């Protein structure tokens, strides 16, 4: 059985246990894409999902200044910018967090047609809950037929 048009979606492309497994799966399926938060290498089929671009300008400015102040070790400023970035730049989001709602605000992935490289008729997104793997003697990962 040959699977084509596969998209793997993970927080990172290589770091951590799940990232490493996702990376190995991506490498074993030719033509697959790995969508993640940090890395971008279109030639290897790794695509970055940018969650900051759709956010408001004030939030992006605060986040940029926070990164700069952390890099330059400016005292007190990172604390202030952290409060601005996490609580005041997006007041509705902060209110929902304060009320105890789960934060699933990932604007970069709310519309998949924006970031998938191509629209395919038989696109098969695969999650780790849908796949069971077997390993052959040559250490290549193969999909199991036990779905």
**Strand order, biggest sheet?**
3-2-1-4
Strand fraction band?
5-15%
Task: Indicate the mean pLDDT.
Answer: 75
The gross shape turns out to be elongated
How far apart, in Å, are the first and last alpha carbons? Answer: 12 Å
Q: What labels would you give this structure?
A:
disordered C terminus, two-stranded antiparallel ribbon, alpha/beta, elongated, 2 domains, 147 residues, 4-stranded parallel β-sheet
Could you walk me through the main structural features you see in this protein, from its secondary elements to its overall organization?
With 147 residues, the protein is of the alpha/beta class. The protein has helices at 16-28, 57-71, 77-88, 91-98, and strands spanning 6-9, 33-36, 46-48, 124-125, 133-135, 141-143. The chain folds into 2 domains: 6-51 and 108-143, no CATH class; 57-98. It has 4 helices and 6 strands; from the N terminus they run βαββαααβββ. A 4-stranded parallel beta sheet has the order 3-2-1-4, covered by helices on one side. It has a two-stranded antiparallel ribbon with strand order 5-6. The two termini are 12 Å apart. Mean pLDDT is 75; it is low at 119-123 and 127-147.
């Amino acid at each position: 059985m040959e699977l084509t048009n596969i998209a793997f979606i993970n927080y990172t492309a290589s770091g951590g246990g799940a990232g490493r497994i996702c990376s190995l799966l991506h490498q074993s399926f030719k033509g697959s894409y790995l969508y993640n938060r940090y890395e971008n290498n279109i030639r290897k089929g790794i695509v970055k999902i940018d969650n900051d671009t759709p956010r408001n300008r004030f939030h992006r400015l605060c986040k940029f200044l926070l990164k700069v102040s952390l890099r330059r070790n400016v005292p007190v400023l990172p604390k202030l910018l952290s409060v601005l970035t996490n609580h005041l730049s997006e007041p509705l989001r902060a209110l929902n967090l304060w009320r105890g709602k789960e934060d699933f605000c990932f604007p970069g992935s709310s519309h998949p047609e924006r970031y998938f490289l191509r629209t395919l008729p038989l696109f098969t997104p695969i999650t780790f809950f849908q796949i069971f793997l077997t390993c052959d003697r040559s250490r290549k990962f193969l999909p199991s037929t036990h779905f």
